[in-house]
């Protein structure tokens, strides 16, 4: 397959890497040459560590028509709201073949709403790529997605991922809802003094055989991003996704996790050193209150 990936952000690189790893040809598009080349270099380095030569399978361009001309599937990672994605889909429809699928890889955007602007809305789908510990893809089926498009999207997911599932186009994909729900419970346990940060993560790792716990994962993804994702879901799905007060306080204090050097953990490089919060189970005079 020929896959056009529109964007040069982390999601675009993740999609491009998964496709190249599976042997697909990728044309990556962005508005600036530097962004295109930097993303291609990142993908090639990432795959190179696994012994995969990517240079003959990925190329880049700043021209949208050149990026999508021969594409079997076009995956957009740049439009984060339905109105903007609808405009993007309509723009693409003028450039692509009748059988080409158009897709979004942005979790929060409604493919159903965006597809409403297409002459052939049945070609629209969504993909949600998840890498660690193994490539996993959610195929998002819009209300208008036709059976042929759904089958082709599923075949693509089977080629680029270890496993995949089909889901309806609803607020928050399956993986996001599960992960955020776990994070909310974990944060509330710390906030209520049930256990400290490392204890909660250790329990999760043992019980669910996870590589990292929900609090470390939230730190790595960015507490500001997790807070915004929860706030967005709460608006659409109700108060069960309301950000916990402790998470809000950390974000307001700019303690947003790995990138900031501190969140639930204190970080050195890519490695968490210790909890940044006091241990609620320790005797009062032994608690580290320095944060």
UniProtKB/TrEMBL annotation:
Coiled coil segments of this chain: 75-102
Q: Which residues form the 3-hydroxyacyl-CoA dehydrogenase C-terminal domain?
A: 174-267
| Keyword Magnesium recorded | no
Keyword Coiled coil tagged: yes
Map out region (Disordered) in residue numbers.
270-291
Q: Any idea where the 3-hydroxyacyl-CoA dehydrogenase NAD binding domain is? A: 2-169
One Pfam family of this protein, by short name? Answer: 3HCDH_N
Q: Which InterPro entries match?
A: 3-OHacyl-CoA_DH_NAD-bd, 3HC_DH_C, 6-PGluconate_DH-like_C_sf, 6PGD_dom2, NAD(P)-bd_dom_sf
Per its record, what are the GO molecular function terms? NAD+ binding; oxidoreductase activity, acting on the CH-OH group of donors, NAD or NADP as acceptor
Question: Could you tell me the keywords of this UniProt record?
Answer: Coiled coil, Oxidoreductase
One GO biological-process annotation of the entry reads:
fatty acid metabolic process
Kindly provide the name given to this protein in its UniProt entry: 3-hydroxybutyryl-CoA dehydrogenase
The source organism is Halovenus aranensis
Top-down, what is the taxonomic lineage of the species of origin?
Answer: Archaea, Methanobacteriati, Methanobacteriota, Stenosarchaea group, Halobacteria
């Amino acid at each position: 397959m020929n896959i056009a990936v529109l964007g040069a952000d982390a999601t675009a690189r993740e999609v491009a890497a998964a496709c190249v790893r599976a042997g697909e040809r990728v044309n990556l598009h962005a508005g600036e040459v530097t962004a295109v080349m930097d993303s291609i270099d990142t993908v090639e380095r990432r795959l190179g560590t696994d012994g995969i030569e990517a240079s003959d399978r990925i190329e880049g361009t700043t021209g949208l028509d050149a990026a999508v001309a021969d594409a079997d599937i076009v995956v957009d990672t740049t439009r984060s709201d339905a109105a903007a994605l609808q405009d993007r889909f309509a723009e693409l429809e003028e450039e692509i073949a009748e059988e080409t699928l158009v897709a979004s890889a942005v979790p929060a955007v409604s493919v159903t709403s965006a597809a409403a602007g297409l002459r052939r809305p049945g070609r629209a789908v969504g993909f949600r790529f998840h890498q660690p510990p193994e490539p996993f893809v959610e195929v998002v089926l819009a209300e208008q997605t036709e059976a042929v498009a759904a089958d082709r999207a599923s075949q693509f997911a089977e080629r680029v991922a270890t496993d995949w599932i089909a889901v309806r186009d609803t607020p928050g994909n399956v993986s996001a809802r599960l992960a955020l729900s776990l994070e909310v419970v974990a944060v509330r346990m710390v906030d209520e003094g049930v256990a400290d940060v490392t204890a909660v993560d250790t329990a999760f790792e043992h019980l669910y055989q996870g590589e990292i716990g929900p609090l470390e994962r939230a730190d790595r993804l960015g507490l500001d991003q997790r807070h915004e994702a929860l706030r967005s879901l709460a608006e659409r799905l109700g108060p069960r996704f309301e950000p916990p007060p402790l998470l809000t306080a950390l974000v307001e204090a700019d303690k947003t996790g790995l990138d900031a050097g501190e969140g639930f953990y204190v970080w050195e490089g890519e490695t968490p050193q210790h909890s940044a919060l006091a241990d609620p189970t320790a005797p009062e005079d032994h608690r580290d209150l320095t944060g």
